[in-house]
Amino acid sequence: MIVNISEAKTNLSKLIDKVYHGQKVIIAKNNLPIVEMVVYKPEGTRKFGLLEGKLKVPDDFNDSDLEIEQMFYGKE
């Protein structure tokens, strides 16, 4: 199915439903195919722990810093 841009804007929800159910939809401009609508498929899953053992968090990571506190809250 080929539709022009204005028709695609008007019927976007219907076109998405058609693509979801397996129909091929191409959007054209001046009868020139520009875009093919496809169902989104994630490329892969995230891998957790890629940096495990490669980073060291300092022991004082959560300690407050007087200079930064003064930038935010001013000098007391």
Q: How do the strands and helices of this protein lay out in sequence?
A:
Blueprint: E1 2-4, H1 5-10, H2 12-20, E2 25-29, E3 32-37, H3 66-73
Parallel strand pairs: 1-2
Antiparallel strand pairs: 2-3
Fold and architecture overview:
- The protein has 76 residues and is of the alpha+beta class.
- It has a domain at 2-37.
- Helices cover 30% and strands 18% of the residues.
- It contains three helices and three strands.
- The protein has helices at 5-10, 12-20, 66-73, and strands spanning 2-4, 25-29, 32-37.
- The chain has a three-stranded mixed beta sheet with strand order 1-2-3.
- A hairpin with a 2-residue loop joins strand 2 and strand 3.
- The longest helix is centred in the first third of the chain and has 9 residues, at 12-20.
- It starts with a strand and ends with a helix.
Descriptive key words:
alpha+beta, 3-stranded mixed β-sheet, 3 strands, 76 residues
